[in-house]
């Protein structure tokens, strides 16, 4: 029997599943669906081409086979879909594959009673970062001198972004080289420190698979009792085979994670320092935010925006007839979200005005973490704003238009 902290090499015993590294993830999810451990699986499969990953809800175990494989050009965050389309897993058991930002969003939504984590089984996928679809196509045409339409597979491996074409051409360029030219991974991915999502029930990937098992097995770390139960069940049912990881593989996995975390911290320092401090930073944010067209894509796609009645729609706070909106629109978002930002990048990725919202939000989150010690998305500890009475505060806003939480502070 396995338990939290145990690590394995695992691979599918099915000849039908052709995974990127042994097919263990799809096999485990297929087992969970077949045994009614979950009612539905939320994951990703290729759409029109490699630049078009599509989120899918799957109830037929056989359909999961079409989801095997890695895709690095996604532009979505899956947990918000559980809230929006599956009633927050309140009456359905949901299996889900999650990157670092996904699993952090799961936790933050759960804290806000938007997702029932008791009904969620999560399989974490190691993530070195993703590339926007439009950015990937432009990068491949410019740097690789390859027609993006000819690419049939892409992968990030050994520090390179590698593409393969329909005629068998295979070319890779170092991620560092691409990013020095403003290409490569999304900016928020470059800042990310959550490379192995241990908040999930299982953390899986190819990092650390060494020797004869390289490319043929998945490295699985058991991260919860629920994860151990499902994993053991899959082994007992003969769905997957397992063995102990190679000691050299353990060392390699640790080194990869450490290097990538250090890179994330270094990039944070670089990107945040470019914003300046104090008034200089505020001025830069105000200037770029003046391009805002109030389309609300940042709000609609943020996992932390959960209010039924958004404060940015209150006419006594934000003039609803003005475009671009008054800067109060952005200040409200910063105040409500910055302590819990999970750096998913959705507010920036989907902004038609190309405002670097995620950079601003993440920079503030890091400062608030230093001040209050709250790290979003790592556990169920409450964020700073949770200590205000949200319901009472919202009623006060409705009744008086005042956002004063501590009414008697300045009274003699």
TrEMBL record:
<keyword id="KW-0408">Iron</keyword>
<dbReference type="Pfam" id="PF04422">
    <property type="entry name" value="FrhB_FdhB_N"/>
</dbReference>
<keyword id="KW-0560">Oxidoreductase</keyword>
<dbReference type="InterPro" id="IPR007525">
    <property type="entry name" value="FrhB_FdhB_C"/>
</dbReference>
<dbReference type="InterPro" id="IPR045220">
    <property type="entry name" value="FRHB/FDHB/HCAR-like"/>
</dbReference>
<feature type="domain" description="4Fe-4S ferredoxin-type">
    <location>
        <begin position="283"/>
        <end position="313"/>
    </location>
</feature>
<dbReference type="GO" id="GO:0051536">
    <property type="term" value="F:iron-sulfur cluster binding"/>
</dbReference>
<dbReference type="GO" id="GO:0052592">
    <property type="term" value="F:oxidoreductase activity, acting on CH or CH2 groups, with an iron-sulfur protein as acceptor"/>
</dbReference>
<protein>
    <submittedName>
        <fullName>Coenzyme F420 hydrogenase/dehydrogenase beta subunit domain protein</fullName>
        <ecNumber>1.2.99.-</ecNumber>
    </submittedName>
</protein>
<dbReference type="InterPro" id="IPR017900">
    <property type="entry name" value="4Fe4S_Fe_S_CS"/>
</dbReference>
<dbReference type="InterPro" id="IPR017896">
    <property type="entry name" value="4Fe4S_Fe-S-bd"/>
</dbReference>
<feature type="domain" description="4Fe-4S ferredoxin-type">
    <location>
        <begin position="332"/>
        <end position="364"/>
    </location>
</feature>
<keyword id="KW-0479">Metal-binding</keyword>
<keyword id="KW-0411">Iron-sulfur</keyword>
<dbReference type="GO" id="GO:0046872">
    <property type="term" value="F:metal ion binding"/>
</dbReference>
<dbReference type="Pfam" id="PF04432">
    <property type="entry name" value="FrhB_FdhB_C"/>
</dbReference>
<dbReference type="InterPro" id="IPR007516">
    <property type="entry name" value="Co_F420_Hydgase/DH_bsu_N"/>
</dbReference>
